[in-house]
Amino acid sequence: MSRLPRTVCAVAGAAALVAATAGVAVSAPSSSHSLPGSVPSWATSTHRVGSVSASQSVTFRVYLNNRGGAAAAAYARAVSTPGNALYGKFLTTAQYRARFSPSQSDVNTVSSWLQSQGFRVTGVPSNRKYVQATGTLAQASKTFATSFAQYSTQGRTVRSNTSPLQVPSKLTQVQAVVGLDESQTLVRPNKPTPPPPVFRNAGPCSTYWGQKTVDNTATPDGTELPNSPSAFAPCGYSGAQLQGLYGMTDAIAAGNDGSGVTVGIIDAYASPTIESDANTYFSRHGIPTFTKGQFRQYAAPGTSQHPENPAHDPEGWAGEETLDVEAVHTMAPGANIAYIGAPNNYRDMDAIMNKVVSKHLADIVSNSYGYAGESLPPGYIKPQVDTQIQAAAEGISLFFSSGDSGDETFGVAGATPTPDWPASSPWVTAVGGTSAGVSKTNSRVFELGWETTKSTLNSTTPPTWSDPAYLYGSGGGTSRLFAQPSYQAGVVPASIANTYGGPAMRAVPDVAALGDPNTGMLVGETQRFPDGHDAYSEYRIGGTSLASPLYAGMFALAVQKAGHNFGLANPTLYATAGAQSIDITKAERDAYPGDVRSDFVNGVDASDGYVYSARWFDRDESLTIHVRPGYDDVTGIGVPDGEAWLDAVAGD
């Protein structure tokens, strides 16, 4: 495998399933073995910047192997595949535990070992997948025969172990150790522009596509603009506009609105104003407000916008929660929403997903976060894959945003193209992004792959746009870790699946929905203004963080219509390719080349003036992923085609 570049390798840390230590390395105990992949790829001597205190407290999880080897995966695949004799025969959480979860004796063995090393065992989830423990780095150093140091990566200083973790050979049930390094701080919400503090879109902007153009609308400060592209960016689509874009208006009006289905949303932290913000937003944009009990927020005690380390951007995650909740409810106004917030974004994202699955808190889960690539220690990936397999076996469908940085090569010399994790897992539905125009009557004008380049205004007479440079776009590409799943066979072309010259591999994304921030969704949340006061405000935003909850909301309509859950959704969704899913191509790009964006210099008001830019649609020339007819690695099989898609997914 090629060595991945800095930005991708940093993610490797995100995985760090490693236990580490401070001070001098300790010799491995006799009769021990190393846990494979337990050193982040960035934890090298060239990135080492300092030491850590041996007395520092640390909490980590020792993950255990499932019983039956690959049996759980085989069962999850069967119950999610139409035509299989086991299709739809999902297990309850108790049934899954009895058949596949680690045994209680395994938990007891590992717990006793940890306690004998001086650690305090602090928890075991209901599916017995891991044992959580707390101690000091000195204890971890002695127990796992390694040492800790500080490393610099992606502009952050994070802790990691310096050598592979060692565990006694007799502990064959140990799969991995997660949480002793700080690489999980590198997880990121998949949206290009997190709000805090306040952010407002400047005018002119259009209520619907093409309402205001360079020809019919003057700029507020008299700046002359080139006439291509001609359309000013939409102010942000909302309500009936988004329902109409995907042809769901009549179904929702007729009661196919997601009722009886629970959509889970996983993020970090928790917004203290989310329910009031969301209801204010819905009432302003023609969407029913939440009924009593329709929205529930699960968060660990003390979880709020004030975590242990404010550098982890809790306000940005609050904006992510707001986007996800308002997007899901817009597309599925009858569905229940369960928001599950991790108490931090640097240690517990994997544990929160396990909690949602082990307690079956939702039928569908939308996840708008990820790591910049696949260069993750295997010991971190395998426990998460096991959780995803359990979700499928229990009938839970997992959706992940595919990322906002294309193939992760832009701006990094020598970068190796890569899709993002966890979107690249074959056990989730990866949702890519599009750029879209919505008409005055709430119908689709156009839809293109989201890969945006940006031009700024030159001070020439007449004015011209600078040469465009790649800015952001839908994540995608071919996995280097996972073989091609059966549902992609015959759909994904060999030029994508076999791009590395070996066997066919998993391709990302699977499907797509609106993601471009320049044709994005209008959202509303409480934000802090420059004078220090907090108030509700609205702004346009996008990213595959938008695409994932939009698609998950529409899938809730399909679950309601079908009257049953789907588990892994991909076998069913791929059956709609070329028929009930609209193929995204470049056919409309010449007619809709882009839009003009007006922004406040200070992000709030006109007091410091305006800045103008052109945002060009579907410009993937500098990337290795491209929009093309049929399946492509920017938009997958495409976007839902209204009620035809609903009928096909539901089996009507």
Overall description:
The protein has 652 residues and is of the alpha+beta class. It folds into 2 domains: 17-66 and 102-181, no CATH class; 240-650, 3-Layer(aba) Sandwich (Rossmann fold). The protein contains 15 helices and 30 strands. Strands 11, 12, 13, 14, 16, 17, 18 and 24 form an 8-stranded mixed beta sheet that branches. Strands 19, 20, 21, 28 and 29 form a 5-stranded antiparallel beta sheet that branches. The longest helix is centred in the C-terminal third of the chain and has 19 residues, at 544-562.
Features:
Rossmann fold; 652 residues; alpha+beta; globular; 2 domains; 30 strands; 5-stranded antiparallel β-sheet
CATH architecture of the largest domain: 3-Layer(aba) Sandwich
- The structural class is alpha+beta
- Report Rg: 24 Å
User: What's the domain count?
Assistant: 2
Overall pLDDT score: 90
Tally the beta strands.
Answer: 30
For the largest beta-sheet, the strand count, sense and barrel status come to: 8 strands, mixed
Poorly predicted runs of 5 or more residues: 1-26, 304-313
- Provide the CATH top-level class of the largest domain: Alpha Beta
Beta-strand portion reads 15-25%
Shape summary = globular
CATH fold name of the largest domain: Rossmann fold
